[in-house]
Amino acid sequence: QKEVEQDPGPLSVPEGAIVSLNCTYSNSAFQYFMWYRQYSRKGPELLMYTYSSGNKEDGRFTAQVDKSSKYISLFIRDSQPSDSATYLCAMSGTTGGSYIPTFGRGTSLIVHP
Amino acid sequence: DAGVIQSPRHEVTEMGQEVTLRCKPISGHNSLFWYRQTMMRGLELLIYFNNNVPIDDSGMPEDRFSAKMPNASFSTLKIQPSEPRDSAVYFCASSSQGMSAGELFFGEGSRLTVL
Q1: Once rounded to an integer, what is the mean pLDDT over residues A40-58?
Q2: What b/e string do you get for B73-93 counting C-beta neighbours within 10 Å, with b at 16 or more?
Q3: How much is the pLDDT for B1?
């Protein structure tokens, strides 16, 4: 079992839909939880990060962490075609004082007009 | 501000040839990472440098792979000899310890095809 599991999709939704992206993990030492967005033929860019459990909202994006279930989610409200990208979850915890993130495989999202 | 710069963007080579990928991290960042991305395995960490010193190279698949960071503004990833299974997108990323834990800044990647 990989440390971080993420359904690769693709997930196809109509414009305006609410999108839910999820990851599960097995390492209870993870403390920081991140979502990166990767457009086609580009490098990943940090979208959101949260520490420990709880919710964090930024505009149309909401990140949720449930450490008891080892489950994290990213919700996108009022999805737009420009949101079409691959979304990678990433997690990290202290490893010798350095935080090296472990990435999921990414979920491909397609928002069609 | 210039981001992480990688070269070449695309490389097509034949099996057995040497491949060298280059990376210039963001100025002031003291950590540098090399990742490999494939459809099957996703984004895998190959090696990590801190203050130009290799800290963790456990992800380097085999002795054909080597990485160096001779100074704070330059790193190379070399594959010799290359094999078709090395075909992937190779990303370089940098970070600063003063920034959010785990926040990496990625380059645009080097797409390698080994025939």
Answers
A1: 91
A2: eebebebeebeeebbbbbbbb
A3: 64
